[in-house]
Amino acid sequence: MATRWGICGAGKISDDFTVALKTRPTEDHQVVAVACKLEDAQEFSRKHNISQAYGSYEELARDPDVDVVYVGVIHPYHLKACKLFINAKKNVLCEKSLAMNTKEVKEILDSAKKNNVFLMEAAWTRFFQASVQIRNLLSWEYIGEVKMVRADYGVPLLHMSRSDQKDRCEGALLGLGICCLQFISMVYNGEKPESIQASGTCLETGVDETLAVILGYSKNRMAMFTCSAGVELHSDALIVGTKGTIQVLSPMWCPTSLVVNRKETQQLVPEPSLSLNFTYSTGKRCEIEEVRQCLLKGRKESPDTPQAYTLLLAEMGDEICQQVGGVYSQDCQNMATRWGICGAGKISHDFTVALKTLPAEDHQVVAVAARKLEDAHEFSRKHNISKAYGSYEELARDPDIDVVYVGVIHPYHLKACKLFINAKKNVLCEKPLAMNTKEVKEILDSAKKNDVFLMEAVWTRFFPASVEIRKLLAEGEIGEVKMARADFGAPLFHVPRSDQKDLGGGALLGLGISCLQFISMVYNGEKPESIQASGICLEAGVDESVAVILQYSKNRMAMFTCSAGVHLHGEAFIAGTKGIIEVLSPMWCPIALVVNEKVTQYPVPEPHLPLNFTYSTGMRYEAEEVRQCLLKGLKESPVMPHADSLLLAEMEDEIRQQLGVVYSQDCQ
Ligand SMILES: NC(=O)C1=CN([C@@H]2O[C@H](COP(=O)(O)OP(=O)(O)OC[C@H]3O[C@@H](n4cnc5c(N)ncnc54)[C@H](OP(=O)(O)O)[C@@H]3O)[C@@H](O)[C@H]2O)C=CC1
Ligand SMILES: O=C1OC[C@@H](O)[C@H](O)[C@H]1O
């Protein structure tokens, strides 16, 4: 009985695929239907003598006479099309690249598994006679142990709309480089490379034009490829072993000539019955027959292109895209921000609980790292995190992390931030960003140099109440601001990190910073004209209680008190020429505002686990700010910009100097 094909999409590749199918016996393969815009489907069906033409993919999905659908639409539509057919229990052969990124590929693979249907990415090169011969030669170790693989594929394609428009297409990697990658992956038997280094040029649209990639494999083996949608490359491939070489002559993506240890053999493809759009497309007959054989044997995937290979290709593609800066809208949309947590202490616990109050589609914690592996394990068990590392370095190397939350105590912020930033990780670091201005500058500089996002976790700024305060001030609700005041005091000296100097102790950096950032927010990041600080210090040399007066231009002022020895009321207010905004306690995680005597509440969600600190689920707002910044490609938050972190550090330095609090970091 013939395998009955449905064709999804009536473009160039579907045209060639249908011609290739005709080179097979009609007892084995028949095209029974085609679907796309109705007039195009009708024209396609007339040209190829197909009995059924549908004006929608949904009709094709419902056709009971179709055994397998060939998805020949452009990549951005693969996910939707594949899921439609798979959910209708159709087997699917989908053009390469199976989807735009790993997340989409996983979604397609999962749905094929769930629906128990056959699915294969149309990596047609693998099924050419020449590729079969290569696999045989490698398994016989005909050229000894493989040490190096190289492939190139370049064709000027930028005149084709799908190749230069990011929303419609793929760029050089997804369009061409994927053939080189799959070749390398075939030679190395689906092994994951140990390293990938990619460099490339992108068009103004953000699409990658030309790429060069080096892959490092275990046991000192390597591979490299170049691809270009801008220029013609030689487009051959080479496998170098300890005892010889296999050369795949151009076109390596539809190979018909091999040179094995200098001896050339040719395996030609049949002539087409109609003219083709692409080189040697009748070679697709091999993948077509592979699908039939798999269906006859009841297989759900091809042993020659298993789904694990498809996944690996997507993962490598994502890594390369990330390195060259080619990000597609699909990479951002619907994709969770993947957090790594550095430090398994109290605030990291609270932050992780706060993340759980946000949709799992938007935020996921994928790994935690602590100095001791058992602490990381305990944390990961408690929070159901899949990866636990016993060092921060391992977290820095994890390719699955988009952003690291640094929740260690402040003397270690500099080292941790630099580690992650140098590993090209985005960072949200607990406050204070560092111990002094010098350290803060070092972190900011390294974030700039490495072109990553960095934000000091000044969570207060992102509470809805703070958003409301900024709105009211901008609208002039209380007239011209003349005075701001804040207090924050809590007896904390039972906590070592609060009274020990080498652990970053002291009221100012622990608590006063929340008051200082509030004042700085009210005065829009302006530098005060003068600062007068007075305070009392413990014998250990850290500040216990501090009172500070700040003078701003145009006769405006601010003041705050903080104490790590006693409880203070924890309120703040902003007084203007036309009214007053009061922030009820706790002002550092505000849930109630009184604006000209009218009270408004802004409650935070309940936590699913007990918290260490007051209203910590409010850290969800800063986490969402990070996500939004990353989605927009920002390197700093407009609400808590780098300049504000620098100003905070400068003011803290000045206050500490007046109090006589000196940390070892100030002397280095
Ligand atoms: N937003 C807010 O309101 C709050 C902010 N914070 C800030 O968060 C940070 C951490 O505070 P918190 O969680 O209470 O602190 P913890 O005492 O719980 O310590 C946090 C982590 O810091 C690392 N650490 C602790 N002591 C040492 C040390 N002696 N040497 C090296 N590393 C050490 C540990 O990492 P590991 O697990 O790897 O061993 C530990 O788990 C501080 O910078 C603080 O200012 C804190 C509370 C509230
Ligand atoms: O460092 C701190 O420790 C105690 C907390 O209550 C406070 O919010 C934080 O800044």
From TrEMBL:
Cited InterPro entries: Gfo/Idh/MocA-like_OxRdtase_N, Gfo/Idh/MocA_domain, GFO_IDH_MocA-like_dom, NAD(P)-bd_dom_sf
Pfam family for this entry, one: GFO_IDH_MocA_C3
Annotated protein name in UniProt: Trans-1,2-dihydrobenzene-1,2-diol dehydrogenase
The species this protein was found in: Poecilia reticulata (Guppy)
Family of the protein in this entry: Belongs to the Gfo/Idh/MocA family.
Classification via SUPFAM superfamilies: Glyceraldehyde-3-phosphate dehydrogenase-like, C-terminal domain, NAD(P)-binding Rossmann-fold domains
Domain of life: Eukaryota
Enzyme Commission numbers on file: 1.1.1.179, 1.3.1.20
MF terms in GO: D-xylose 1-dehydrogenase (NADP+) activity; nucleotide binding; trans-1,2-dihydrobenzene-1,2-diol dehydrogenase activity
Quaternary assembly: Homodimer.
Catalytic activity: (1R,2R)-1,2-dihydrobenzene-1,2-diol + NADP(+) = catechol + NADPH + H(+); D-xylose + NADP(+) = D-xylono-1,5-lactone + NADPH + H(+)
Signal peptide: none
